[in-house]
Amino acid sequence: MRNHLGTYECKLCLTLHTTEGSYLAHTQAKKHKMGLLRRAKEEEMMKQREMPVASTNQSEVMAKKVKIGRPGYGVTKGVDSTGAKCLTFSISYPEITPGIVPRYRFMSSYEQRVEAPDPKYQYLLFAAEPYETVAFKIPNEPIDK
Protein backbone atom coordinates (compact mmCIF):
# COMPACT_ATOMS: atom_id res chain seq x y z
CA MET A 1 0.00 0.00 0.00
CA ARG A 2 1.32 3.43 -0.88
CA ASN A 3 1.11 5.93 1.99
CA HIS A 4 0.84 9.73 2.00
CA LEU A 5 4.62 10.16 1.99
CA GLY A 6 5.03 8.28 -1.28
CA THR A 7 6.66 5.24 0.28
CA TYR A 8 5.27 1.71 0.21
CA GLU A 9 3.98 0.12 3.38
CA CYS A 10 3.28 -3.53 4.19
CA LYS A 11 0.35 -3.48 6.65
CA LEU A 12 0.92 -7.12 7.54
CA CYS A 13 4.57 -6.78 8.59
CA LEU A 14 4.50 -3.05 9.44
CA THR A 15 7.50 -2.31 7.21
CA LEU A 16 8.24 0.74 5.01
CA HIS A 17 9.87 0.53 1.56
CA THR A 18 11.19 3.45 -0.47
CA THR A 19 10.63 1.85 -3.88
CA GLU A 20 8.12 -0.46 -5.44
CA GLY A 21 10.92 -2.92 -6.22
CA SER A 22 11.90 -3.06 -2.56
CA TYR A 23 8.28 -3.73 -1.60
CA LEU A 24 7.92 -6.50 -4.21
CA ALA A 25 11.13 -8.13 -2.96
CA HIS A 26 9.75 -7.97 0.58
CA THR A 27 6.56 -9.80 -0.45
CA GLN A 28 8.72 -12.73 -1.60
CA ALA A 29 10.84 -12.75 1.58
CA LYS A 30 10.62 -15.08 4.58
CA LYS A 31 9.30 -12.47 7.04
CA HIS A 32 6.30 -11.66 4.86
CA LYS A 33 5.50 -15.31 4.13
CA MET A 34 5.61 -16.17 7.84
CA GLY A 35 3.21 -13.29 8.50
CA LEU A 36 0.79 -14.67 5.90
CA LEU A 37 0.90 -18.11 7.55
CA ARG A 38 0.29 -16.56 10.97
CA ARG A 39 -2.70 -14.59 9.65
CA ALA A 40 -4.17 -17.73 8.03
CA LYS A 41 -3.90 -19.63 11.33
CA GLU A 42 -5.56 -16.76 13.24
CA GLU A 43 -8.44 -16.61 10.73
CA GLU A 44 -8.91 -20.38 11.00
CA MET A 45 -9.05 -20.15 14.79
CA MET A 46 -11.62 -17.33 14.55
CA LYS A 47 -13.83 -19.46 12.29
CA GLN A 48 -13.65 -22.33 14.78
CA ARG A 49 -14.70 -20.01 17.63
CA GLU A 50 -17.70 -18.78 15.63
CA MET A 51 -19.07 -22.28 15.01
CA PRO A 52 -22.05 -23.01 17.29
CA VAL A 53 -21.44 -25.60 19.98
CA ALA A 54 -24.17 -27.36 21.96
CA SER A 55 -24.19 -25.69 25.34
CA THR A 56 -26.06 -26.08 28.61
CA ASN A 57 -24.63 -22.88 30.09
CA GLN A 58 -27.63 -20.64 30.82
CA SER A 59 -25.82 -17.35 30.09
CA GLU A 60 -24.87 -18.58 26.60
CA VAL A 61 -28.42 -19.76 25.93
CA MET A 62 -29.83 -16.39 27.01
CA ALA A 63 -27.37 -14.51 24.77
CA LYS A 64 -28.82 -16.31 21.73
CA LYS A 65 -32.43 -15.29 22.46
CA VAL A 66 -34.08 -12.82 20.12
CA LYS A 67 -34.99 -9.38 21.46
CA ILE A 68 -38.70 -8.61 21.11
CA GLY A 69 -38.54 -4.82 21.09
CA ARG A 70 -38.60 -1.92 23.50
CA PRO A 71 -40.63 -2.07 26.70
CA GLY A 72 -43.35 0.48 27.41
CA TYR A 73 -42.20 3.35 29.59
CA GLY A 74 -43.24 6.61 31.18
CA VAL A 75 -41.24 9.38 32.87
CA THR A 76 -42.67 11.69 35.52
CA LYS A 77 -40.90 14.84 36.72
CA GLY A 78 -41.52 16.15 40.20
CA VAL A 79 -40.21 17.74 43.37
CA ASP A 80 -40.01 15.86 46.66
CA SER A 81 -40.71 17.16 50.19
CA THR A 82 -37.14 18.49 50.57
CA GLY A 83 -37.38 20.50 47.34
CA ALA A 84 -35.09 18.21 45.35
CA LYS A 85 -35.88 17.43 41.70
CA CYS A 86 -37.24 13.92 41.07
CA LEU A 87 -37.57 11.73 38.02
CA THR A 88 -39.75 8.62 38.23
CA PHE A 89 -39.31 5.96 35.54
CA SER A 90 -42.16 3.49 34.99
CA ILE A 91 -41.12 0.67 32.69
CA SER A 92 -43.48 -2.11 31.62
CA TYR A 93 -42.07 -5.59 30.96
CA PRO A 94 -45.20 -7.74 30.41
CA GLU A 95 -43.36 -10.66 28.76
CA ILE A 96 -40.24 -10.71 30.92
CA THR A 97 -38.40 -14.03 31.13
CA PRO A 98 -39.34 -15.78 34.40
CA GLY A 99 -36.70 -15.37 37.08
CA ILE A 100 -35.13 -12.28 35.47
CA VAL A 101 -34.95 -9.15 37.58
CA PRO A 102 -34.70 -5.91 35.56
CA ARG A 103 -31.29 -4.29 35.90
CA TYR A 104 -30.26 -0.65 35.75
CA ARG A 105 -27.03 1.31 35.61
CA PHE A 106 -25.83 4.86 35.23
CA MET A 107 -23.57 5.60 32.28
CA SER A 108 -21.34 8.60 31.73
CA SER A 109 -21.81 10.53 28.50
CA TYR A 110 -18.21 9.59 27.68
CA GLU A 111 -19.00 5.84 27.76
CA GLN A 112 -21.78 5.94 25.16
CA ARG A 113 -21.14 6.00 21.42
CA VAL A 114 -24.48 7.29 20.07
CA GLU A 115 -24.04 11.04 20.60
CA ALA A 116 -21.09 13.36 21.10
CA PRO A 117 -20.03 13.38 24.79
CA ASP A 118 -21.63 16.19 26.79
CA PRO A 119 -20.46 16.58 30.42
CA LYS A 120 -23.82 18.17 31.35
CA TYR A 121 -25.64 14.83 30.92
CA GLN A 122 -25.46 11.18 31.91
CA TYR A 123 -27.56 8.16 30.97
CA LEU A 124 -29.73 5.78 32.97
CA LEU A 125 -30.06 2.35 31.33
CA PHE A 126 -32.65 -0.36 32.06
CA ALA A 127 -32.38 -3.95 30.80
CA ALA A 128 -34.45 -7.13 31.13
CA GLU A 129 -34.63 -10.19 28.88
CA PRO A 130 -36.06 -10.51 26.23
CA TYR A 131 -36.53 -6.74 25.78
CA GLU A 132 -34.07 -4.27 24.30
CA THR A 133 -32.13 -2.05 26.67
CA VAL A 134 -33.64 1.42 27.06
CA ALA A 135 -31.69 4.52 28.10
CA PHE A 136 -32.76 7.92 29.38
CA LYS A 137 -30.63 11.07 29.12
CA ILE A 138 -30.65 12.84 32.48
CA PRO A 139 -28.80 15.85 33.93
CA ASN A 140 -25.37 15.09 35.36
CA GLU A 141 -26.09 16.02 38.97
CA PRO A 142 -25.51 14.15 42.23
CA ILE A 143 -28.06 11.32 42.52
CA ASP A 144 -29.93 10.08 45.55
CA LYS A 145 -31.48 6.79 44.34
Automatic annotation (TrEMBL):
Keywords: Metal-binding, mRNA processing, mRNA splicing, Nucleus, Spliceosome, Zinc, Zinc-finger. One of its GO terms (cellular component) is U2-type prespliceosome. Coiled coil: none annotated. Residues 5-39 form the U1-type domain. GO terms for biological process: spliceosomal complex assembly. Signal peptide: none annotated. SMART domains: CactinC_cactus, ZnF_U1. Pfam families: SF3A2 (PF16835), zf-met (PF12874). One of its GO terms (molecular function) is zinc ion binding. It comes from the Eukaryota. Belongs to the SF3A2 family. This is U1-type domain-containing protein. It comes from Triparma retinervis. The lineage of its organism: Eukaryota, Sar, Stramenopiles, Ochrophyta, Bolidophyceae.
